[in-house]
Amino acid sequence: MKQYRQLGSLTIPLLFLLSLLITALIFFWIGLQASFSGYWGVSLSGFILSEAAAFFYVNQVVQNRRRTRQVPALLLPFTIIAGYAILLLIYIVLFWGIFKVSFVSYLLVHGITTILLAAALIVANSYKRYTEDQDTTNTGSASVIAQIRQSLQALHMEAAAWSSVKGDPLLRLLEQASEKARFSDPVTHASLISIEENLLWQIRELEKCLHLWRKGDSGNGELARQLLDDIMGGLAKRNSRLLSLK
């Protein structure tokens, strides 16, 4: 299994080296047919640059293959690089082959195109980083909502096991809080982080109160009810604020 993983990790570098070899052979043939001039060197350098950039982004795709939201962001650089390669072919056919422009003009055209390529890739990278930040924020926030739901559901199930001894009112409150959390919108917003973190703290305190109440401390039973009221109020506040942000 380890050998297969090592082979898989070498696939992309081997493909990159193979593409470089094919490009070198094609340009060697072109040099034999035309000449190994400055035009030839500039054109070859452009294609090597495009292949190196493509290899870099293919490696990025492999590293982030589990982040499905980044796929559109990673497709943008490939589109830019493909457009750059097509322009290189047009330059070779038109400016070197047909019109035979001066070497300085040919070099200038390639230089301007390369600068535009770099600028476009910088913009694409900025967009990719933005999607990464959004993905990280949403994933972290979604995990908070999931944790709130799971914690309340677990407390409700635990209380249901001994509710016949301790009474039903608290169990009903737990059930209501669990249902309210279950039907809360999983989408979140940065302005809701403080509310959600406070809800998690209240749930942790509720767990402690229920544990002590089960041992016979009646005072913690009343505190648990107050916490449940606060939790349901916090969920209502969160959902209302989220609705106003949409």
Please characterize this protein's 3D structure.
With 246 residues, the chain is mainly α. The chain has two domains: 2-101, no CATH class; 138-245. The chain is built from eight helices and no strands. It has helices spanning 2-33, 38-63, 71-98, 103-160, 163-166, 169-182, 193-214, 218-245. α4 (103-160) packs parallel to α7. It is rod-shaped. The two termini are 48 Å apart. Mean pLDDT is 84; it is low at 1-5.
Tell me the domain tally: 2
The tally of strands reads: 0
| Beta strand % | under 5%
Shape: rod-shaped
Per DSSP, the total helix count is 8
Radius of gyration: 31 Å
What is the arithmetic mean of pLDDT? 84
Q: What's the main sheet like?
A: none
Helix content: over 70%
Give the N-terminus to C-terminus distance in angstroms. Answer: 48 Å
| Secondary structural class | mainly alpha
Q: Element order, helices and strands?
A: HHHHHHHH
Low-confidence stretches: 1-5
Structure keywords:
mainly alpha; 8 helices; disordered N terminus; 246 residues; single chain; 0% strand
Compact summary:
The protein is mainly alpha-helical. It has helices at about 1-35, 40-65, 70-100, 105-160, 165, 170-180, 195-215, 220-245.
What is the strand and helix layout of this fold?
Blueprint: H1 2-33, H2 38-63, H3 71-98, H4 103-160, H5 163-166, H6 169-182, H7 193-214, H8 218-245
